[in-house]
């Protein structure tokens, strides 16, 4: 039997993963700025300049930043999906409306799939797929945050519903505001402000995922793999059983 346990202090892994993702995203931004691919967030965008606005997609549009971009998004999607599954298992015996818990997991899973589309299909290579991934990540990710905020207050795990729920509602509101500002500013061609809203949106989402460390510290997750005690059949024995079965059928 193989057993993998989640130790009482293992909740810190959630914070560590989020910090690592923030660092890697920051590295991608600084690489793009250093290579003069994008305008720094602190500067004003000049339309006549050869540099692009500092959107996340533009920051990871050309190598070497695109290589970091793909790696970061794939890792973020994987870690996000694992967090979603653990959260689903944590809430499963507590939630009175299973559809709410299931819909939350589905929303985050699709958002994580959208991250892989954003990371692996750069804007310059496949704009349509890249934008679909962006809408999936931002839209479904924000939906996941709102659903989890509601569930947090309803379930009230270890009487910490308000302690975790209020910050999550604040972060969900900030996510929604940033997303609305992002699309509104793009429509008005205010690219620098839109890019800042996009970066803020990503940081708020990572901060939201980090809040699950509050409740994960109470959990003990186990992955159990048991060996089959029956001895494996040889190839000849398998064929003999098949032939006997066929003769019985005749």
UniProtKB/TrEMBL annotation:
InterPro entries found in the cross-reference section: CWH43_N, DRAM/TMEM150_Autophagy_Mod
Subcellular location: Endomembrane system
Keywords tagged on the record: Membrane, Transmembrane, Transmembrane helix
Limits of the CWH43-like N-terminal domain: 28-218
Keyword Ribonucleoprotein: no
UniProt topology in membrane: Multi-pass membrane protein
Transmembrane segments: 68-89, 101-123, 135-157, 169-191, 197-214
Name of this chain's protein: Transmembrane protein 150C
Protein family per UniProt: Belongs to the DRAM/TMEM150 family.
Keyword Coiled coil: no
GO cellular component: endomembrane system; plasma membrane
Pfam family membership, one: Frag1
């Amino acid at each position: 039997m193989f057993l993998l346990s989640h130790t009482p202090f293992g909740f810190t892994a959630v914070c560590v993963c989020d910090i690592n993702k923030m660092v890697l995203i920051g590295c991608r931004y600084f690489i793009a700025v250093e290579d003069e691919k994008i305008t720094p967030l602190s500067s004003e965008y000049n339309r006549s300049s050869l540099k692009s606005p500092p959107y996340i997609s533009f920051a990871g549009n050309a190598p070497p930043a695109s290589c970091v971009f793909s790696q970061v998004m794939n890792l973020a999607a994987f870690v996000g999906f694992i967090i979603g599954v653990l959260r689903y298992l944590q809430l499963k015996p507590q939630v009175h409306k299973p559809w709410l818990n299931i819909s939350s997991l589905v929303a985050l899973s699709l958002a994580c799939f959208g991250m892989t589309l954003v990371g692996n299909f750069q804007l310059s290579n496949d704009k349509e797929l890249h934008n679909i991934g962006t809408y999936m990540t931002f839209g479904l990710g924000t939906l996941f945050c709102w659903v989890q905020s509601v569930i947090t207050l309803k379930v009230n795990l270890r009487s910490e519903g308000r302690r975790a729920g209020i910050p999550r509602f604040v972060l969900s509101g900030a996510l929604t505001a940033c997303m609305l500002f992002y699309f509104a500013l793009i429509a008005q061609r205010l690219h620098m402000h839109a890019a800042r809203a996009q970066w803020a949106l990503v940081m708020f989402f990572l901060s939201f995922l980090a809040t699950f460390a509050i409740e994960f510290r109470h959990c003990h997750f186990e992955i159990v793999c048991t060996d089959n005690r029956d001895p494996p059949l040889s190839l000849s024995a398998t064929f003999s059983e098949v032939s006997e079965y066929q003769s019985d059928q005749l």
